[in-house]
Amino acid sequence: MIRAQLELRIPNMTAYETITAAKKSAIPDDAAMLRAAVELTKDISAARAAIYWPDCFLSAALGYGALAGAVLLRETWLAVVCALVAALALYRALLFIHELTHIHRNALPGFRFAWNVAVGIPMLTPSFMYENVHTLHHARTRYGTAEDPEYLPLALMKPWSLPVFVAVAALAPVALLIRSAVLVPLGAVIPPLRRVVWERFSALSINPGFRRRPPEGEFGRMVFWQELGASTWAITLIASTQFIGWRPLLIALAVFSLTAVLNQLRTLVAHLWENDGEAMTVTAQYLDSVNVPPPGWLAPLWAPVGLRYHALHHLLPSLPYHALGEAHRRLSAHLGAGSTYAGAHYGGMMPLLAKIARSTMGRR
């Protein structure tokens, strides 16, 4: 009966909440949508180096240049403008870590190494903190369950959980600095500490119950060199305060805090967070996720590198970010405004924040 109800309503829905009051895990797969997603995007599935390299590293260069301006300029308003530009540009460069987890290892030779040197290690967020973690979030049987490192049923939690979720992100840069400068070096000589640091503080996850498994093989060797680079850089940053004072480091940490808060807000509206822990179909996962398609012009700033199409990304995880806009246009034209595909489209960050907040209000 539930399946019949869902199949009747899904083709005509315009928003996720119109499906039914049935459990989200009971939503059946829309075979037509899944088939169209694959068939209509075969010719745009290759990652293009001519887009990845300049987009990422010009963003990083702009970010570091603006950060230098925030540190060196004495005019307060100019320094603040530079800080905002730095936060947005470095945010875009940092989010290429998401692409690194999905593109084939041989697709962009040298890109992973260059990204870690230019972005991941300087921002104390090397790629291992997301690799072999984010893919668990896309696993068919893990999404939205207790084994998903990137899922919390935020819409089903208490109202205070949302501001706490965002506020914690402001402390992330300081926590990363302490991790790399203090905890990782200590862990090198104290095995129990090393195990705790790896299990609990070495992944970009939001699920406090997630415990990371020890790295092995080639990935373990990559982790070693990335950890060494991040620790060396973190210690150098702290040592530099003895020669140039604390001001440059504190400004940089403030800029990175703004970046982290922006990313946390994006994370907060990337899903509806309505699953109660049971395994979900691919269609249910899609409808628990969010697209913010054009014409909204702010979305590329707070959800860059294709993340405005986060629901579509859950349909096609390996599709490169630069192809998502075209994939969206093709699927929208093929499936129509009243389709399941349209059920994951929303108008912007503020309506989504309001929707999730309303969901929590009844749980005081």
UniProtKB/TrEMBL annotation:
The chain crosses the membrane at residues 50-71, 77-97, 109-130, 164-190, 244-262. It holds the Pfam family FA_desaturase. One of its GO terms (cellular component) is membrane. It comes from the Bacteria. GO terms for molecular function: oxidoreductase activity, acting on paired donors, with oxidation of a pair of donors resulting in the reduction of molecular oxygen to two molecules of water. InterPro entries: FA_desaturase_dom, Fatty_acid_desaturase. One of its GO terms (biological process) is lipid biosynthetic process. Residues 76-337 form the Fatty acid desaturase domain. Keywords: Membrane, Transmembrane, Transmembrane helix. This is Fatty acid desaturase. It comes from Sphingobium fluviale.
